[in-house]
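User: Last request for today: this protein with copper (II) ion, please.
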Amino acid sequence: CGNLFARKEAVSARTGTVLPSAITLPEPFAVRLPTVPVLKPVRRDADTDYYELAQKVATAEIIPGTRTAIWGYHGIFPGPTLEARSGRAAEVRVRNELPVPTSMHLHGGVVEPGSDGYPTDLVVPEGYAKRVDASMVRMHARAAGRGNAVHAHQPVPEAPDPGIWTLHEGEKTYKYAFGQRAATLWYHDHRMDFSAPQVWKGLAGSAIVRDAEEEALGLPAGDRELSLMVCDRSFDAEGQFLYPALDPELSDPAGVEPKYMDGVLGDVILVNGAPWPVKHVGTGRYRLRILNASNARPYNLELTGPDGQVPFTMIGSDGGLLPAPQRLESVPMSPGERFDVVVDFSRLSPGDEVVLGNTLGERNTGLVMKFLVDKAVDPGPAVPAVLSAGYEALERGKALQVRQFDFRLAPGDVWTINGQPFDPGALLASARLGTVELWRFTSDFNHPVHTHLAHFQVISRDGRRPGPADAGWKDTVNVTPYGVVEVLVRFTGFRGKYMLHCHNLEHEDMAMMANFTVV
Ligand code: C2O
Ligand code: CU
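Assistant: Here's the final one, the structure of the complex with copper (II) ion:
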């Protein structure tokens, strides 16, 4: 078919400006889907697994024959998968060998506040000013005002109060209780003002919590269980990641200042760090844990086989299993969301191909990956009709409080929640541990709203009952332009200061974040 992938992608008015890669890209489905290694504990005791994870400057072969510089957990992109057992704690000692501060957040984790990856709770490189001095404050003022191009259209705020920072020199140990049910989580950088460029450089990985309830179901496992981290990137002429924002610590900030108000999109779709990969499968059922780890790109995923569309059986959402499986023709997935699905290749024959496409994409971003059926196998058991007998559907009447959070571009081109750009010292809500609240999210654009700590159930979307894709316990939900999404949020696990924010990472960096506390 020729290499139509090397061509420039048209600018899309709907989804924002796409960064076109300048390098010749591989043909689609030429690269094998990488298997991401599982992080091994260095030690275990009766109730805790201990891990070490270094954040490193490294290179990765993403485009065949080219070394791309990355910032990777463990020096790889995606980072190694963190596998946990519900009820067994983990402690992850994170060493920062990068030239920049970082903060690691376990997305979807019910985590104590000191380990949640708060944006100003930073692991700074060895030798980095231990004291918060004027240069750090200036750097953030510059990021918010000028140096980082995604912030270029935000007015320069007063420099953040030096008192907001907590700095850990060289390393920090993150404590994860994992007192939650089985679910697909992920971890990524959360540094204030710089999450988007730092995740783009590679700071993201998957995490899986397993439990006995789920294991009793006989869902596809072993090599029939695949984690698929989907994200978009662009590459410059040398094959390096292309991002419009220049980190003022590393680069001359006098570069381009395009308007990336809608977020940064790339023209190359990566799955587990490989461009449009192929996965060889048998004629069986497969479990796919799909994660949208893109900075700003939404997808609507569809599977197309030789006889047309192949449906998905959705079994879980961000927060684990649904009460019962349900059929989805397509998977709409905004940044930060996870979909746990089973696909059935048992009616196909060796040689058949099934393409995972993205109906929101155009040309190269319309393709994600391909499954190539190469052997006949035992299909494995069907998905049981009941997945989670103890699933509790929350009711509107249980809500102790109703609150509204309005995600909006305020005058002066500032992304705000209830009119406020992020202020580490401000509080938008205070909820009581053990209670349920109704939170109403309203929006002027597509904003994937994410809550830390507290998971929620969607009870209405734009005045109507939510669709099947909104089912289950969630921590991230997309609010469409001028849409209204009502969720029932349950506050469990820990007291302390947490946040909610837009998971379009450029919006997040442009201060579309807010604090809430659990008391
Ligand atoms: Cu996945 Cu606060 O983020
Ligand atoms: Cu947003």
